[in-house]
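Summary for the lay section of the report: proteins are chains of building blocks that fold into shapes. Here we show the chain for LY6/PLAUR domain containing 6B and then a coded description of the shape we predicted for it.
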Amino acid sequence: VLQRHMNLAWPVLEITMLLLCHALVVAIIQIFIISENQAFAKNINFYNVRPPLDPTPFPNSFKCFTCENAGDNYNCNRWAEDKWCPQNTQYCLTVHHFTSHGRSTSITKKCASKNECHFVGCHHSQDSEHTECRSCCEGMICNVELPTNHTNAVFAVMHAQRTSSSSVTMPYLPVFVWVFVLPLL
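The coded shape description reads as follows.
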């Protein structure tokens, strides 16, 4: 009887071992794939983000990296919502909370009005030993970096050249004269 049970147990044991080996191989492959994806994802260049091709909802529309209470800047930028900022906003705001050792505790990025950008800079809280740095910038997805000190926690405004119908004709006036009037002489 014992011999008969042993004969039945070996195939079950072999099948169990095969299933365990198969599960181990699948787990190793999945870990490899996940680590490869993370390695490629860490190489995303957020500075080379091109403006969107979809039509703008209103003149001078822009987008910002947006996240709320993200753990780090990379994940905030990587998973930021891709949507146009509301018309009542003009800037991109970044609020960075970190410990006295420089470890990020939360990052919030969003579209902001001029009123929300009045209080930029860094403020250290004596109670919680945390620092909050706020910065604002103007331009399409300009809030890539995190403010970490008074040097980069600023209100960065680019003075974009906006063209009106009167200023458009001025740069082209010399070209117009050169192309059309000069051949007549």
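Put simply, here is one thing we learned. The chain has three helices and six strands.
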